[in-house]
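QUALITY CONTROL LOG
STEP: pairwise intake check
CHECKER ROLE: data steward
CRITERIA: each record must contain a sequence immediately followed by its structure tokens, with no blank fields

ENTRY 1 OF 2
RESULT FIELD BELOW
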Amino acid sequence: MLARRAPEDGHLDYKRRDSLLGNSNKRGDEVSKDVSAFMNSDGGALVYGVRDSKASDKVGGVPEPFDPRIDGYEQGEITREQIEDIVTGNTQPKPGPDLFRVIEAQLSGRLVFVVDIAKSMQGAFQAKDKKYYRRFNFKSEPMDHWEIEDVRNRAVGPDLQLVYGFTDTWEQEATYSRGSRIPIHLGLQNIGRGLAETALLELGIFKREYSGSPPPSTFDARTRLVTLQTPISSVDRSVSGQRKVPFCWFHLPWTQQARGLGYMPLFAMVDPSYATVIELVPPDASEIQGYMGHIVWRLQAPQMSPKQGLLGIYKDFSDLRLHQVDHRLVDISL
């Protein structure tokens, strides 16, 4: 991460060496606040012993070049066991080894510690100051009551995720033949603990990349304008702004009425359930390299926080790859 100057985001935060040193009360407050935020959000990593530079409050920092004179820790200055004690002694309920682990890394003769934190499916975790936190705009911020209730519902509610591929066996690499359409197969998988009897999958297909009939089992919601954010440069931290893009918008309800004989509830921890297939029309120039298509998606279900993301189809010579491009998506404005 340091070599490629990986920027901070919702799953990564750099901490200076003094975050684990000095006053024990202040140290417990800050560590438990960040651990609580990651567990109550989507998990992530805290990297201790690394300085970062921030462009603004709404843009995550990038690590400064590692300097062993002022970064990292000496052997014995602090240990993994001490960091584990700080986490478990200041976070309620006490998190177990299934929710976090402390990794010790050697760098230029110094130690750097990574606290690897999982997303909590056991309910909300409270920091030492009696508050509950979440990750927002690269920071740990207090949660509203409804957000705390939402995290508590994870223990009994569903947690749906979108699965995708060029085939109905979810292969994410394919060979492109000139002039052919690109099929994108989509499915839903429940990785939570509760049953999802109903769900709603919304799909936005870049208008110039789509033609023909609506995907099976979907409702055509016509053209919508979707607001996208161009990526943040990890070099100069510049942001080139937002743009509104016309997408063909479709609704795919996962209900008995909509699915008919093909309906089954989305049971927890089973194989993905097939949803639909979309055919994209690639650009006319077959020699084009880079992104050939995008699909915006939103996923909702009772007792579950809505999810959204951006799928990208990337062409490298004759090879196609399909993957999430989450860092390009800021919001969906309909």
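ENTRY 2 OF 2
RESULT FIELD BELOW
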Amino acid sequence: MKSRELIDLDSNIARARIVLSLVTWLSIYVDPTTPAPFSIDARTLTTLAAHLAYATATYLAVRRRVAADRLPAISATLDILFAVAVAFCTEGPTSPSFVFFAFAIVAVGCRRGFRATLTVTFLSMSLYLLLIELFAPNARDLYVMRPAYLGITGYLIGFLGQQRVNFEERIRQLETRAERHSIARFLHDGYVQGLAGINLRLESSRELLARKQAEEALLELTELQAGVAREFDEARGYIRSLLELESGEQSRATSAALKTQFRVHADFIASALVVEHVLQIMLEGIRNTRRHGNARTASIDAVIRDQVVRITIDDDGVGFQELTQPPWSIASRVAEIGGRFRIVEDQRLGAHLEIEMPTT
């Protein structure tokens, strides 16, 4: 478990220990089988008061994280000792000592593994049998089955606790694998493709410089620098999202973006290279709409018209009001394949893109 989860668990165990102390106090006070109902003898009263003080101190220590590494072992030992003390003071047909032993086992079972639970169970059984032998030898037949029942209870708690630990570990492994696959897919389909586009534009700039077309090369490098800056911002935002550092407002925006409804239609014939570019452009259009569009609905179409593949991307979001340049990843793919790209300006809300690409 993570540190925060362990602190919460220890806090709940400590809180349950206080409840156990108070309920036991009340149960002994109202027990009609005691020699003097509605009263508690001095020895039992002292033991229960000490247990309540111990339970309260443990709760405060957990909350303040005092001796956090040693506290679970110390509290497990004290739980068993108080169970022995309660058994010594109250042993009889209605003694609550069995509950104290069971609590010590449950507390260890919740936090530790199967072996630790069995160790506490065996120790509790041994101490219980020793108490019977020392202080109630004539009533051995009356109480001897209580340690046996305690052993059965401890085994079941330890076994079920270990199954819970195994189940949680399996869930963590599956979640980790799913997260790794998601990150790998995101990097492959996003930033790896972006790096491929950067490489192509650098090659184009190198060729322009080789042909001594310095102004064209400078323009290409300027656009490339702006594109890289945008990709850098996207990468930084993605890393912050992995670390869960985004603000509540950003989280709500992301949650709203995930609810965008897309209508996608594609029906065209083209070479493998063009098909790959078209599909990546459509995918990038979906990503841009989700990340930046804040749209409720969006549509993407890719069809053959006048011997070219015509792609249209429309949504009802915020549009390109503050965008001085077209989406770099889409624009670079269109330029690489020799296509045409434009942002359609009209009176409707949202973004409206038109892209034409050759079929070969």
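INTAKE CHECK: passed for both entries
DESCRIPTIVE NOTE, ENTRY 2: Residues 48 and 215 are 89 Å apart (CA to CA).
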